[in-house]
Fold these 3 entries.
Entry 1:
Amino acid sequence: MERAVRELWAESRDLLGLGSPSPDDTAAATASAVPRADLPPTPLAFLRDHVSPGRPLIVSAAATRHWPAATLWPTDSYLTDTLRSTAVSLHLTPDGRADALAPHPRRPSSKCFASAHVRRVDFPAAIELIRGSDPAAGLVAYAQQQDDCLRGEYAAVAGDVDAHVPWASEALGCLPEAVNLWIGNAHSVTSFHKDHYDNIYAVVSGEKHFLLLPPTEHHRLYVRDYPAAHYVAEEGGEHQQLRLKLEMDEPGRMVPWSSVDPCPASPEEMAAQAAAFPLYFDGPAPIRCTVRAGEMLYLPSMWFHHVSQSPGPNGLTIAVNYWYDMQFDIKYTYFNFLRSLEFDDCSSGKADALEEGDPEEKND
């Protein structure tokens, strides 16, 4: 079974024109880059060459050059002045890893799925906390609300970007279900997950760094059930003195999530990860791409992605994403069939890798 699945990984990448370099083949990994376009595609070309086959695409800054946000948002004062009286949802973690695995607070040798502590603060205070984020101090702030927030709590600046992406809307036959604004710094990292949306991701300031795996490589991420937990703020002190602790959800629930950390912090952790998850670390290198300020990434639905970021000159990484509801067609059926295939390397552990719900979904 494993040999057949590995052949599927290679064939699917070849059909997408992305190649299957080994983890140690840096030159080949660089060559198997996500396609880039100097100009936005026509709706027909986008549908034919990217949506239908499920192939990512990066579009140059020509796609957003007309946005007022392209020049206004990277400045030091525009967003703070415009949103001065606006309360926003700020996600707080001790280490910048929200919706990710963390040591279980009662059984440190085990893992749990940890969600951020969310606090409503005025926008200028939110920016101050984001800029001052420091894992060494136990507090990292990220504006990453997941509820169409650009058209909600950030409505005062929503007109600075397009309400939708015209060539994508025409090709996909619908308008975006949600448009979100993300503001963070280099300390915020998004763990491997997938979404049931076609995603158009536009960076306005700084850069976003993606590790990508096609849906066919589901088994490589060792998706297992983890008990859910959330960070809470301990009483006392102002925002600057907030201390966070992890508590288990009550009533308890389980969350299917990727077990793999592709960027361990130490050689010892890398060795432990590689030993525990050989399908990831011994398989083809993940597809890497960087989306720079002004550029757009089309990320097809069901693609697994891990995201880190670098701030711009203003000390912030700012992005907007458009979520288009995916088509639950024959490709989704094939994915569920593939997910139902079990072999020993990825089925051991606390929970089965074969979850019938909607696992590893998150925003970036």
Entry 2:
Amino acid sequence: MGMPRFTRPKTIDGELSPNLYVANCGPAVGISYDMIKSVFSSFGQVKGVYAADESGVRVIVSYSEVDSAQAALTALNGHPCPDLGGRSLHIRFSVLQPPDEVKDSIPVSLVASEVNIPGLYLLHDFVSAKEEQELLAAVDERPWKNLSKRRVQHYGYEFRYETRNVDTEQKLGQLPSFVSSVVERISTFPGLEASASVVLDQLTVNEYPRGVGLSPHIDTHSAFEGLIFSLSLAGPCIMEFRRYSDGSWDQKSASNSDIKVEILDNGTHLARRAIYLPPRSMLLLSGEARYAWQHYIPHHKIDMVNDNVVRRGSRRVSFTLRKVREGPCQCEYPEYCDSQS
């Protein structure tokens, strides 16, 4: 269940409410929600402590009674709090947003087995810190192409964003030598059959500035084969997966994997999962994960990974390696396939 969302107050003497907006404390400065709840419980029953935004230094303290909130505000606002590291708290009343503005959060998995999407694999520390720096230096020596919010480089074939496909007659050449060791190591990636021969001929390098993400999408079926590898460098992020289904969702599968399933206004079922991608990790999308689930990176500067605040770095660079498809896709997911629609 997602946490409640509250409006940010404008003045201290705003609308009375059992909810307080408290600035200058939170996980980002080493103060846990349990510590905050303990202090504010001195004034009455606290129903919960929530993140007010993505900063990690502002929270909402929700009381059962308005009088409790008013007593806490009077006693604590503007004064150093010894039990919260001596920090001076800045407190205002806050109110719940209307229900249609609430967006539920979802749990963030740290390993692929927790996500439980067939064909999804994540290998931590796929490259060393030294290799990471060498790969970053290699791409920084080469020209970048500027998009609206990020920069890209293409090797093997250029990916055309206007068509979400490649022109197979416009080959740019072989993959660059700086990525050779990565490609060689991929052949031993968990999840691949021992006899599988991995052939990759297209590389897209993306540089994401802090706060920039990626819109939800499935890589075009007719453009690429069934294995998509993505190496994360320089900074972390959360990747969310979404699957839409017009029919009834497989509730047995959903309950077993703790997949969050929503029913949209048009009756479509939406399943959502999320995973944390640390620097130097390699993600593999294959099978169902590649063909049926959208992947998406939220446009955040700070991610909440369960109860921990994770600040994104000044940049995140991804190496996405794929094999360009030479014929129509004949996958088992025609409802998501541009070759079969």
Entry 3:
Amino acid sequence: MRKSCNKSVSYSLMSEDLVKENNSINIWRDTVDKYQVKGEILYGVHPVSLALKEKKRHIFKLFVKQVNNKEMIHKMSALNQIIELALAVDVPVQKVSKRVLSNLSNRHVHQGVCLDVSKLKMKNEQDVFLNLKDKKCLSNKQLPVLLVLDQIQDPMNFGAVVRSAYYFGIDCVLVVKDNSCRLSPVVSKASAGSLEVLDLYQVNSLPAFLEKMKQEGWNIVGTRGYSKNNNYTENIPLVSVQDFILAKPTVIIIGNEGRGVSYHVHDLCDAFLTVPPGQLLYTDIESLNVSVATGIILHRLLQTQNS
């Protein structure tokens, strides 16, 4: 009897959660329909302001929180700056309640602003080769670095990696077409708006792209969790990020959260980078979050470039 009772309680709680989730989706759809949203909703001060500045998307309407006299002046100032940006490019502005903004953003942290925009499109990988030839996507650094995101699926990780890539001055970011996270508003918010600034390129076939880069003289470097072994496979060295020296133009591959770098590109790598731990680790927590590891690796590359 006690066993069946527990099952009943568990099912009841699960059903209640599903009802709440469905109600939330219905409220979001009703709000989107009511306010005639044409694209998708960006939210948050940084993504919205940078989308207005960069103009990489079609922008349909700005929704701003109606501020009352009791709220802080600096919040009004930040909202006014965004309103000015919108009006400067002839974007309609509508003041709405906090509840409407919450519904438009699907309950995310909107900071008082939402922006109705078209979806962000990635550039073609052929543009990479054209830009490399013309040196359009390269900085003045002698040893450029390209970053490949190999099937990263979590939008928070994806956004954090893009933010690090922008911060550390990566010359070009490429995304594997299949099984990768889409460029959603969640990604833009997680990137603190870096997604609105940095150009991303879509790679249809990662092995073919890497083969071509190797022919052009680029170093291909994968990444993986820490191991005591000096070789990842029989012929590919595993190098601590502390010991890595940037000696020529390099492609860095950041692998999937669970599987790592795709198996079919392992043999194309000249080396694998790893971040060594500061102590002996339990088996279940023997690796870093992919965005944290990426930040450490890119910081090390920046140090190498500067030296």
